[in-house]
Every structure is written in structure tokens, then in C-alpha cells.
Fold these 3 entries.
Entry 1:
Amino acid sequence: MKTVLPLVVGAVIALLNPAQGRTLDAIRASGVLGLCAHPNSLPFASKAADPPGFQIELGEALAHELGVSLRLDWIITQYQMRSAGCDIVLDVIADREAQGETRLRISKPYYRTGVALAVPSSSALASFQSLNEHTKVGVQVGSVAAMIISQRHVPTSTFGFESDSLDALSNHEIDAAAVTPAAASYFNLTHPDKAFRILDRDESIADLNWNVAVGMVRPDDALRDTIDGTVERLRNDGTIDRIYRRYGVVLHTPK
């Protein structure tokens, strides 16, 4: 997902103006469910709306189940979330410690992901364990993957966005890109002539694997329970899988 370094100003605004979460009754009374999303972060979300991104499509499905319409609140960093006044954020890490600063309440997880390696089809690399001092890996600046890979004395090249590291990989500037499977899968969908192999995530590296859930901004119990039930229904009837598959992403069951 396209993200930028946290903005100090945004953090100050968020702390000075902590938005109060809305109840399920308030959301239904207003007729809208607010979703915070990045305006330029395909396959996750896009303000251009063609395609809109799987977060927008899933948000619309959730809103439909709640009997309301979806309102999009465009943000660049998580620190803008509370001042934006949205009700939910999608594709958040389903871990209370990871959400410590955001103070989001998290739903039941709906898929599992993490950091994978995208490599050229001709690459001899087979796993994270194959990386060595001769393999340069593209990583997002400030990411956990950047720290872990560097600790293994593997040379890295830092990028602001996952898409930038995938472009560098396609231009043979690096040997592998440490990215989410979603980003790599969408690249393959939109660049079939340059498709990469996506190596399996290494579940032995706990910090590079996580479950994904709906993040809720200070929900009441009724909203939390309703979101949980809705996510379960949309998983069971295949809606969530179908949405992500349109972006080339195959979801894995949460653990």
C-alpha cells in the first residue's frame, strides 16, 4: 500500500482533536458508513475510481449489509484518521499491540498476509533463506522487513512505495522486492508481460506475517458485533474472495 512517513503535524492534530466514534444507531440514522482510505494506492484504494480498489469494494459491501451508503474519507497517513471522522479502516493488522497508536478496535480477521518476495521468473531464489550478501532486495523505507533483512547482512535498496520497488525489480535494478502479496499480485495482473514469481511467505518469521481485519474507530459493542457478523457472512458466501480476486489477489485463511 502506498504510505508516506508519518507527518508530525498530522499527529498533533489527531492528538488535539480525537474524534469520538459513532454508534451503530448513529451510522444507520445518518445513512452513511465512513471509510478512510488512501487516494492513490491501488490495488487497495484509488480516488480515480477506475478501478476503485478492493478496500472500496469491500467497504461498499459492508455498507450495503448495514443498510447504508459508503462515504469515502481520503487520508494520506494514519494520523489523519481521527480528524477525518471515518468509522472504519480496512486491511489493518489484526493485532492490538500493532494498533496501539491508532487505538482502533479490530474485527475478526478475514485473511492472512505479510511480506513476500517477488523475484524474476528466471531467479534462483526460492525463499527468504536464499537471500545472501549478493542479493539486493527492495524494501519500504522504515519497514520491519527492511530491518529484518538488513540484520541478515543482505544488501537493500529502500523505496517509498511498494510499486516503486516492483518497478525497480522489473528494470533489473534489484534482485528481489519484499512486498505484500497483494501488491505483487496486482503488478502481475496489470503487467502480464513482466510477471514475477511470488515466493511463499516465511511463517517462521513472525513479524513478517499477520492477520488482516476491519479497524473500527471507537465503535460501540453493537457496531463491533455487527461488523464481525457481516465480515463472517461475506467470507462464507465468497464475496470477499471475489472482490480480491478481481485484483489478482488470492486470499489465505487467517491463523
Note: The longest helix spans residues 221-236.
Entry 2:
Amino acid sequence: MPETEALRGSGALSPAIRDHLGAQLRESYAVLIEEAAPDTFVDLIRRLVAALDGHAAADEKVFGEDLIAALPALRAFALSLAVSAARADDLVQETVLKAWANREKFRPGTNFTAWLFTILRNQFYSEIRKHRREVEDVDGAAAATMVSLPDQVERIALQNVWSTMAKLPASQREALLLVGAHGLTYEAAAAVIGCQTGTVKSRVSRARAWLADALGLDRAEQSLASGTTRA
């Protein structure tokens, strides 16, 4: 689906704005990651390990522990794609089961979280295709229903970042979260998404420019610079 003109900001952001925007993204996303993964997922993984009945090699037990450790980030990524917490939890459960069934395919030494993200993302879009639903909507109608962050007063600014980000096209939001929130390299994010590295760079650049403008970061920096000049 073509991107709207409103989302095609191509102006280069200053390092200060990029750093500030990145910090806000990581902080707002951390609110989700801070939440403990539901015990049902932890119990599921431990049952899978126990089902090996003592014949599992040490590396398979390590795989299970690594899977438990990755649950918060996995659930946060699921929440960023899904339109409800319940659907996100279903995605996580399917991802856990598929990851366990294909654990021999994971190459030790590579990015475990990125591998899990790939499984989860493929599951999400497979369900979309199966039900023949539109993934992206330019007006952000579906994205706007993303799960809300906690509503404490001190997190109002972060809530604003999250709700504003929800208006981005799904492809741009996804790329920005993988790179800006989860810290994946452009190459790793491209592997998760299944596209060229240059495509990820373009999506992240457009998303950063639009988000910075929507949050008024450019105007804030210009105002600060103007005030400094007059001082």
C-alpha cells in the first residue's frame, strides 16, 4: 500500500533529536518489557522441557531457559503488532510452540531474539493472510487500537509517544521498533522482516522523521536554539 505524503518526511534529523527520540522509544517500550511474562508461558516452556523426561541434552535445557528469558521482549513485540493483549498472548504461545518444535534449526551464536521475532512475525502475517484482513491502514484506525501503556501520571509523555507511533504505517512502525526500541541492527531487522537492508533504513528514516515532527521535537529544538542565540 502506498505511503501517504504526510508520512514521507525525508529531512535529516539532527543527532540531538535522533538521540532524544530513541530514548523516548526505548523508555516507552520498556514499560511493556518491564511487565513480567504471564506464568502460563513460563509453565508451558517448563512443561516442554520436562516432557523430554530427562533425556534432553544440556543445550536443550539452556534453550528452554533462554526462551523464558526472551518472553518479555517477545510479548512486547507481539503487542506492537497485534490489536489486543489477548491476541498478542496467542501469538506468543504459538511462537513458543513453533520455536520449541524447531529448536534444532536455531544456530547457536546468532541472535536468538531476532530468530524468535521472525517466527512471531511470520505467524502474525500468516493469520492476517488466512483471514484476508488488511494489515496497514493509512489513517491508523487499526493501529490506534494497540494496547495502551499504564496510565500513571509520570508516564503521560510516554503514552503520547506510543499513541502517536500507532499512527505510523505498520511497516514503518515495525522497522522503527526493531531498530529503535529493540536495538537490532539494520541487517538483523531486515532478516526478521524479510526485506533488503536498504528498505529497513528507508522505513526507519521516514518513521523517525514523521514521529519527530508529530511529537514536535523539531519545533522544540528550534525554539531552544533561538532562545540560546538571544541569550
Note: The chain has ten helices and no strands.
Entry 3:
Amino acid sequence: MSKPPARIRLADAAFALFDERGYEQTTVDDIAERAGVGRTTFFRHYRSKEAVIFPDHDRLLELIRDRLATSSHRTALVAVSDAVRLVLLHYIEESDLARRRYALTSKVSALRDREIASVARYQRLFREFIADWMGDPTTSASLRAELMAASVVAAHNHVLRRWLRGESADPVTELDEAMGEVLALFPAPAPGARPDGTDGGTTVVAFRTGQDLDALLPSLRRLVEGDPGR
């Protein structure tokens, strides 16, 4: 029977040693020795001891960018949901490794800090995509994009943690439902909408008056065009 790839052996060795000795007391040399490889092989696969613990966020972020890049204005929110699902599926594929990581980061504050920093990268990517999709440079729209991105990440993390704790038997369905709730909070801007929230169409005002319609029309036109004093 062939050995698992060196990358997998290193990860298994690292987590076993973290369990036995503690994270702080385990060195790169300890991990390499337990995995039966040299330091050079270790650094060929991982940049640091911390990197053994976390998934390849650079690769995951690139997968998200690729998925978002294939969307149109009409399919942007579908692309966001698909991108979030890609991340969840990666963790599910890791299975026991993801759960061991979760248990370790829950105990080591330095690792929790790194995890928080990683989450911020995902949120920034979604925020930039959503802001571009909205096409509105105003401050209120910028806040809306920030809130939407934060909600997207929060929904993913909520479902992921439930699965990691063994509380969810069908995390993919849970995530799809959670994303449905998130996106319902943020209706899509209409194509061609202007930054002031209008769409450039005709405004119709209805009211009763005793004036003759022909005499009233010029005043209505000035009101709609934003020049009531002319």
C-alpha cells in the first residue's frame, strides 16, 4: 500500500503532535521528523507551522474570484451563493481535518487571530464584488455593500460551525437556505438604476384639483423636472 502524499502526512503529523504536546511546544522539525521527511520537504509544502493548520486560503479566494467573474449583473447574487458554497464544500471535503482545526483554533488565541484575519479577506472580496455590482459610489451604497458582504460571511460561518460541532447533517442545504434569507434582505438594484435610487423613468403624481388640466400641466412639468420656482 502506497504512502499518503507528503503534504497529508505532514498535516497528520502536525495535528497528532499538537494533541500530544500542545501547539506552542511543537516545532517544524518535530513535524517533519514525525512525518518521515526533512525540513526542505516541509517548507516545500508549507510556509510555516501555522500554514499546516489552515486551508489554502489563497487558492480558495482564487476559486471565488473565478466564479464571481463568470457572472452578469442579472446572475451576480447566484454567483455569490455559488462562491460561498465552494468554500463550505472545501471544508466538508477536509472532513476530520477541518474538525481538528476547529478544536485547535478554539484553544489557541494566536490561531484564532489568524482565522479572523482570513475571514476578513473573504469579506473584503465579496464587498468589492457587491459594490461593483451595485454600481453606486454613494456612501449609503458603500455601507450597504459592506453589510451585505458581512451577512454573506456570517451565514457561511454559522452553518460551517454547526457542521463542525456535529449539529448539521446537511450543511449544504442549510447554507442554501441561509443564503436565501441573506439575499432576501438586499433586493437587487434595477438595471439602469441611478445612484439616487431612481431608474430615470417617468414619475406619475395623482391628486385632485379644481384647476383646468391644460393650465396645470406646465406646473406639473416644472415640479417633475425639479424646478418648481421657474
Note: The first helix runs from residue 6 to 21.
